[in-house]
Structure formats: C-alpha cells, structure tokens
C-alpha cells in the first residue's frame, strides 16, 4: 500500500508541475463527523444563556430529541462547496458520495 500511495503522489505532483494552479482548482475533498443535535423543549430553553462554568439545570429524564447526526462537508481551494446532515440510520459509502456530488 505504501508503494501505491507513493505512485499516486508522484502522479499528482507530475500533474501539478504540468498544469500548475489549474490542477489545484479542480481538487474537491470532503470529511464527515458526528455532531450532537438537540432541539430545545420550549422557547424559554432556547433563549436561556449560560456560561461554560454555570451549573446545568437538573433534569429528571433524557430529552428525546438529543441525538448525534452525521455531518458531511466538501470544499475546494476557494472554500466550502457543500454541506449536509445525514438522516438517522444513513451511512456514508461510495454510493452516497456519488449521489451527493
């Protein structure tokens, strides 16, 4: 695998030497990350302001809306091109990347 990576890097460097900045402008990359998603139960919670060191309010049950969602972002040399939050139960695979791009 190291040899394959070396060969690919050599090819990319060769393209950069031949095409210059035009080659860099056609590169698109992406990443994904799990983020915590929370919908406040009421408007008062939405407007509540707390410092990081403030004690959190006591709750006796877990809020049903608290969950993690998968965040996917794509960017090029100019900046962010596309971002999306995947619905619960979806995964990132090659078919998902193809349909997104």
UniProtKB/TrEMBL annotation:
Pfam families: Transposase_1. One of its GO terms (molecular function) is nucleic acid binding. It comes from the Eukaryota. This is Histone-lysine N-methyltransferase SETMAR. It comes from Plakobranchus ocellatus.
């Amino acid at each position: 695998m190291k040899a394959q990576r070396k060969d690919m890097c050599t090819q990319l460097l060769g393209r950069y030497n031949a095409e210059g900045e035009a080659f860099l402008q056609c590169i698109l990359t992406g990443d994904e990350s799990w983020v915590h998603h929370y919908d406040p139960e009421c408007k008062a919670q939405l407007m509540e302001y707390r410092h990081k060191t403030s004690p959190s309010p006591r709750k006796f049950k877990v809020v049903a809306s608290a969950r993690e969602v998968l965040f996917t972002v794509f960017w090029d040399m100019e900046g962010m091109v596309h971002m999306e939050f995947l619905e619960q139960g979806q995964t990132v695979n090659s078919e998902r990347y193809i349909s997104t791009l």
